[in-house]
Amino acid sequence: MRFAGCLLASLLALSPLCAQLPATPVDAPAEPAAIVPGRELTLGEAVVLGLVEGITEFLPVSSTGHLIVTQYFFGLDDDRQLTDTHGAPRWIKPPSPENPAGRPLSLKAAADAYTVIIQVGGIAAVVVLYWSQLWSLALGAVGLDREGGRLLRNIVIGVLPAALLGLTLDDWIDAHLFSVPAVIAALVAGALLMFYVDRRQKGSLWAQSNGRKPAELRPSEALLVGCLQCVAMWPGTSRSMMTIVGGYIVGLKPAQAAEFSFLLGLPTLAGAALLKGIKGGPAMIEVFGWTPVLTGTLVAFVSGALAIKLLVAALTRFGLAPFAVYRLVVAGVLLLVIVT
Hints:
The chain is an all-alpha fold. The chain has 14 helices and four strands. Helix 3 (43-57) runs antiparallel to helix 4, helix 4 (63-74) runs antiparallel to helix 9 (180-202) and helix 9 packs parallel to helix 11 (239-249).
């Protein structure tokens, strides 16, 4: 409980920055999207978004959900089409015979791409902290490390379900699930699941396992964790939460479950960042420029490394329950904000 309170307080401490920014209208008329000029991403916004990404990426609280909420309070969820300096509409993909509507460039589209691309900072944090495991994977790939080879096999199997569904559902998810109400629902559902799994883990055969390593998982067990990771495509669910829960189910101790979650996250996050970079990166740079992107990535790297250390220590000592409490508190705060 104390840990959850500290985490909530640390994130809410950033809220004064939000108060200085224009609020997003909540009762805009249902008219065709207006064409409007864009605005820059301030240094303060870049730092806050980097902190939110780095702190929440590897904690089981949903980085995507927190970033969607942060964008909402910063007024970055404006989906009206942007114009250039001459008043002409700007496009991610201009209209074509295959796609007559095209993909308009909006502030929200640029911000969504930004929050995915700065995940590179979190990826770098895992690389630095788990370089020995990654070296073992490299040796395993060329047949020089048997355990590294088995771990590489399990990571590939665990990544496949999310990779296949992500390529298929990416646009649909962006269009239908990137909203504050969707995040609230996922936060609550995830908290209930965490309470249940944490209780089972502490009083069942899961807790009595001999602390299996991720490399010791059978292919079917790695696939189960990978399938559970797919649930986290719903913003607010948390990829970290689903993979740690999966690790518990297949008999990994908390620290080993977190390790497997981090390693699974590398190709998953890198793939998402690459896909989003190809689809929306140039347009995002056109709107925000390079300085906010580099700033957010650097902040995400530093805060992500600290969050990884925190998560391993917290899971070992407290389990998942404090993070579940935190999720419920955040969901309640968001409900109050939206209702009032």
